[in-house]
Amino acid sequence: MPEHISRKELKQDKIHDAIEHGAEAVFSHTTVLAAAILAVVIVAVGYFGWSFYRDRKTVQATAALDVAMRAYSARIAPAPDPNDPGDPFYPTEAARSQDAVQKFSAVADKYPSTNPGRLARYYAALCYEDLDRQNQALEELKKISSGKDKELVAMAQYQIGVIYERTGKSADAAKVFRDLADHSSVFVPRPLVLLELAETLRQSDPKQAASVYEQLKKEFPNTAVSDEADRGLETLAPKS
Predict the structure, then answer these.
(1) What is the pLDDT of residue 101?
(2) Model-level pTM?
(3) What are the pLDDT digits (tens) for 194-204?
(4) Which residues contact 128 (CB under 8 A, 6 or more apart)?
(5) In terms of Cα–Cα distance, which of 137, 140, 136, 173 is closest to 158?
(6) pLDDT digits over 80-103, tens only?
(7) Which of 65, 162, 59 is nearest to 121 (CA)?
């Protein structure tokens, strides 16, 4: 190797090195960009694949829920309807509720992450109530209460309050109804919950019941709710 390198040779070597480094940088950048694009593609495919799977499951769950709803609302009769022989019918309400609860439970268990599946669990609880199986109804309703659907959670909480009231747990029922009144929803509106609260308090605390009725009259004057509150006040025990 010569001891001295001319300026021209040195310049050529620098240019050569720059080209090499530039090529390496471009190759490195291209590799990173390709990896990033591949990652985006994988995420996109995964997302659309999951969306397709979820939508497909929702369609299946909706169809199964429709079958269960037909059973839930079927006729009570000793024989099929001559005009619609394929329509379901049951000899008793208990038989109808028993079949419906099995169908709703199957939908809820098979499609738990879909909206139809969650709604099926709610209707299963209603069927358990119809069958006087209150503990099982509460079990199903409490599963719904831990969900994220505000309206369905409110519906479940309302039914829990109703069951508490029917089973003599007035204090628990009143607590549920008060909470719902403070966080009313579209399907469980405040006046409905307050009327239920007043009804719950009628025997255990008539003065509080009267206070709730008066509150209803104040908040909803000149309405059917106000008229219902008037009737409630008229029928309260004299000690109130």
Answers:
(1) 97
(2) 0.73
(3) 999 999 999 88
(4) 101, 134, 136, 137, 140
(5) 173
(6) 888 888 889 999 999 999 999 999
(7) 65
